[in-house]
Amino acid sequence: MAKIKALTNGTKKDSILKNAAALFRKKGFRAASVRELAEMMGVEAPSLYNHIGSKSELLQEICFEVAKDFTAHMKTVLASDANAADKTAAVIRFHITKMYNDFDKVYVSDNEWKQLQKKEADDFLAQRRAYENSLTGIIDEGIKQKLFAKMHSRIATLTILSALRGLELRQQNKKEFTLKELEINMVQHLVNGITI
Amino acid sequence: MAKIKALTNGTKKDSILKNAAALFRKKGFRAASVRELAEMMGVEAPSLYNHIGSKSELLQEICFEVAKDFTAHMKTVLASDANAADKTAAVIRFHITKMYNDFDKVYVSDNEWKQLQKKEADDFLAQRRAYENSLTGIIDEGIKQKLFAKMHSRIATLTILSALRGLELRQQNKKEFTLKELEINMVQHLVNGITI
DNA sequence: GCAAAATACTAATATGTGTTAGTTTTGCTG
DNA sequence: CAGCAAAACTAACACATATTAGTATTTTGC
């Protein structure tokens, strides 16, 4: 009866993906049912299959869209001629902004990727590894330039990325602190912590 | 036929909990089945119900055991007369050690508590909030003592705890870096980052 | 060694889930 | 308005899952 509304900027599929991300975040991918997703959209469950291939497909698209965005940003950072500290700060700021603007999808990508089917999970993990390694490279560069203290660069990488992945910028938190406050405090904390 | 073996140090229930934690970590609570758990123990699924009340109960026991340990440790830290920086370092070290020794349970507690039933989830979250607030109190104390820089103490709290929760100290990582290395580097990173 | 308690097994149930089949309705386009 | 594609609906299937019932077997305590 009710029809799936397309987003003002985007297709019906985008609308489904957005709702799926919200649902998967709230309940977890396995606990979330296609029937619930359908209800969010005011539609019966089988109707969704006119628009999607499968439930897994939704998770895939969410995870790989997010991975793509982060990878693309990392590429521009690596190509810039900023010093290691500024590069690191840029990475941190991008994570915060992205989490701020696309909380559900980023959260799902970070926390539910394990529910991808094996092949996709492996692919996702490989992309994540590459991303981590890029940041480790930046930190190593900073150490060599004596910008950063001597340290275990891989541990520093994981510390930074863990701190960022743990952020949960839901609406509630947006009232507690602003985007700018977050950026300033976290960059300070995470970059200064390794700076000489 | 096969009987559930008790751990060398612990009851049969402990043995089940340990396997459950490993399984829940690997596949996620919802994706993990009682049958799989039974198989890990060399037993048919219904046999487990001679030892456990339900699948949910296992998750509950894991989550609340971990929460209790962290809360207890925080209490001793708060009672100590160390300064704020040392208190913060003690908290960080405890997280790392606990994750190192009890990876599966800590991981499950951190990542699967949302699958608790509503009442338990609320209780768990309240404990976590209280824990976070204790750390925020320590940081505020440090700021007042001019040990730490002026900052948004709640953001610093979340940064530190996120970084620690994101740690995944599975066997693989234990080869990559030692416990001591982790402690030194993460304390350095996370405490120095806020120290004047 | 025997009674009783603990614990295993098999069989079955109730429920929820993703998904397909088949059909009807909707809404655009000529 | 006719016709066609998009997309909704109802009904149903196939499957997995947690859990219970009922029974056999093993272990324990005397």
Q: How would you portray this structure in words?
A:
- 2 copies of one chain form a homodimer.
- Chain A has 196 residues and is mostly helical.
- In chain A, 71% of the residues lie in helices and 0% in strands.
- Chain A has 10 helices and no strands.
- Chain A has helices at residues 12-27, 34-40, 45-48, 55-79, 84-101, 103-112, 118-144, 153-165, 171-176, 179-192.
- In chain A, helix 5 (84-101) packs antiparallel against helix 7, helix 5 (84-101) runs antiparallel to helix 10 (179-192) and helix 7 (118-144) packs across helix 8 (153-165).
- Chain A is elongated.
- The termini of chain A are far apart.
- The model of chain A has no long low-confidence stretch (mean pLDDT 95).
- The interface between A and B is large, with 36 and 36 residues.
- Chain A binds a DNA duplex (30 and 30 nucleotides) through residues 1-4, 33-35, 43-47, 49-51, 54-55.
